[in-house]
Amino acid sequence: MSEEFNQEVDQATESNEPQEQKTNINLIFNIVLSIAVVVLFVLHFAGSKSGNSEVATAAGAKATGKIAYINADSILSQYEMAKEIKGQLEDKMKKAQVELQTREQSFQKRVGEFQQQIQSKSISQEQAQKTNQQLTQEKQSLEGLTQQYQQLIGQQQSELTIALHDTVTNFLKRYNKDSKYDFILNYRNGGDLLFQNPGLDITTEVLKGLNADYKKHNQGKK
Fold it and tell me: Which helix (H) or strand (E) holds 187?
């Protein structure tokens, strides 16, 4: 084999090295899943039209300065709709993982076989060039598919979390229809609120109402 061919196959083995080019699919999706719903839920509250993570009193109602708060962490972990959304996202991610891992394993197997052929010099220059091109295209296709799944699942996360945010906000508006509170704040562990009076926490009551509404809604669909 010519020197040019040897240089080319060296480049091929470097560009298709299994460990160096591994896509880290599990890491990508596990990180996304672990933070997505929480972050989006909190951001939607923080970015709501009120501007301060609050549900205000009805228009024209006299302000009394009464404040309550809900614990976002508890809502996310105990509200049945939130748990269902997380379950849906987990299922979608697991299906994506299976497909991507299967394709990645197939790719890594072909890379290994190609490297063995090069090391044993049992492949022609022409065939090595062709195989290297095929592997490069396959690698790019796998990376592109991974990005597509990330974007698709990210969009679904956003849509589901908006629905969750709207459901909670609309419930709080009904809950506060008598203008009992001027503000209902969104508290979360590690947030900006450093101290809160436990007597102002209405999370348990709100969760009870949210889950009752959700159960009724699901029964109506049967």
Answer: strand 183-187
Angle of CA points 200, 203, 206, to nearest 5°: 115
With a CB cutoff of 8 Å and minimum separation 6, the contacts of 118 are 9, 12, 13, 128
Q: Are 185 and 67 in contact (CB under 8 A)?
A: yes
- For 185, list phi and psi in degrees, rounded to 5: -90, 160
- Whether pTM > 0.85 for this model: the answer is no
DSSP string, 13-43: HHHT-TTTT---HHHHHHHHHHHHHHHHHHH
What residue spans define the domains of the chain? Answer: 3-221
Q: Closest by alpha carbon to 79, among 206, 202, 186, 216?
A: 206
At 200, the pLDDT band (50, 70, 90 cuts) reads very high
Contacts of 162 by beta carbon, 8 Å cutoff, 6+ apart:
40, 44
Gap between the Cα atoms of 32 and 93, Å rounded: 9
The amino acid occupying position 150 is Q
